[in-house]
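Replying to the earlier thread about multi-chain prediction with a worked example.

Input:
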Amino acid sequence: MSEYIQVVEDENDEPIEIPSEPDGTLLLSTLSAQFPATCGLKYRNPETGTFRGIRLVEGRLHPPEGSWGMQLYVCVFPKAENKRKGDEGQENPAAKTKRLDQAKCSDLIVLGLPWKTTEDDMRKYFSSFGELILVQVKRDPKTGGSKGFGFVRFSDYEAQKKCISQRHLIDGRWCDVTIPNSKEGSQHLMNRKIFIGRCSEDITAEDLRSYFSKFGEVVDVFIPKPFRAFAFCTFADPAVAQSMYGEDHIIKGTSVHVSSAAPKNFDKPDRRGGSGSSGGGGFNTSHSNYNPGYGGQERYGHHGNNASYGEDMYGQSSYGYR
DNA sequence: GTTGAGCGTT
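Result:
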């Protein structure tokens, strides 16, 4: 049964009521719609006053005793920066302010631009979100050809938030906008996406699109070539993606398994030495290592595809490489 | 055969 759950970011805040799903679980996406960047919930054990963590499985938070009740739940945020061991005891009120202070605009990377898109095109498109103070298309210095990505920066943080919260149809291709090299950024991109495992080779991108469109608007399908028995499907709405995590589906007679799309580059498990925290603040989590050895030279060859589908079939070319 | 692809000459 669906119910409303009282949630606060900080124990002293006024609660916001968040709806659970019909099965009683709370989608992390529902929670993060009200509390961006939150990664979980905790509540105080009434008997001891100690915080208890809420179980999180496949994007769903599970009620502690079968029901959420009138209990107050407190958001948990990733990575308590600034906190040395032993400091845990005091929740200083500055903590919240600190997070708010981070709400500054940063450069945003625009991934997946059509080769033909120019800075003027980008400016035209993105200015609808707010005032732009940077627009760039990255090009090969020799050929002058676009590298298929660029950067924008807004002056208004609300514009930035809006912009990174959705996919963008630019000159006929779906593009992602996110914080460069940041874990937050990649998480953002992942939560609209499902990983489809156990695919058979006869399942085409077209099959996946038409099948998953039953559940919500599909904005992208990706099948690695050569065949590797998995695929990705991106929905316009993160809630659609997250509601499917953990499910099995039959497509063309094959049982495929849907789970969350993990970032390609996972953080190294061991971080040693002082984290090189730049004093500047902002979203500078510099710990994503992006595949240094990869050349990506195919991108410059040609646009012809040995993939199954033409680039214009859906107005985008996720079916080829690129 | 269950985790792609793209990250900035300033």
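The CA atoms of residues 182 and 285 of chain A lie 5 Å apart.

Feel free to reuse this layout for your own posts.
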